[in-house]
Amino acid sequence: MCGRYSLTSSVDALQRLFGFPERPNLAARYNIAPTTDIAAVRLATEEGEEKRHYFPAHWGLIPSWTKSTEFAAKMINARCETVAEKPAYRAAFKSRRCLIPANGFYEWEKLSKGTKQPWLIGVQGMPLFAFAGLWESWKSPEGDIIESCTILTTTACDSISFIHPRMPVILDPSDFESWLRCEAGSELLKSFDADRMSFHKVSNRVGNIRNDDADLLKPQDPPPTQARLL
Whole-angstrom Cα distance, residue 79 to residue 222? Predict the structure, then answer.
């Protein structure tokens, strides 16, 4: 799964990679948690042409047909194996896809005696990348509009499977356009190249969502040969 990640890149860096014109006032976030608003990118029609645009989205998908937001916290991830079939996701998979920018994501390795070790995971040579996401627009009984999203997950690649059996779907920049235009399907929903993953242990402080500072990214007793995130 993917239940926590970081995004600390500048707006300039985001614009260069994702090609949106907006200049959102984005603070560095070192410990992004579900049910908060997160940065996302989608296609929108402008002067008869589809172009990429930034938008904030509630992390936890709210299907357009649901009567309340109560289950959004359970819909932060969509399994790629069933996303085209599940009623909550299939409409968005067909026509409402997005990119979710990130610098790294956290997963917890289960240790003995019920303890867990958090790891920060990223991609070598890609200090800023994108998760494959889906978005929805929901209208409350009071008429309020909430735009929400979910992150697609797949089987973890071999190099990080000892940490957790699942990982978010990470898209290569060359696949951004075909994903957003819903032209590509299951061929993109796969684990990322195992040899390109970068990972190191981090502090247990990341488990508390109130902690949101740069120290969360620092390696904790890393192996000497372990590649580190940029």
Answer: 31
126-156 per-position pLDDT tens digit: 999 999 999 999 998 889 999 999 999 999 9
Domains assigned to the chain: 5-217 (3.90.1680.10)
Per the annotation, the verdict on 149 as an active-site residue is no
- Out of 98, 107, 136, 147, pick the active-site residue: 107
Angle at 82 between CA 137 and CA 127, to 5 degrees: 70
pTM of the model: 0.93
Beta bridge partners, 136, equal 148
Catalytic residue among 2, 80, 98, 149: 2
Hey, what are 187's tokens? 């061929």
Question: What pLDDT, in 10s, does the model give residues 184-226?
Answer: 888 999 999 999 999 999 999 999 999 999 999 999 975 544 4
Is 2 annotated as catalytic?
Answer: yes
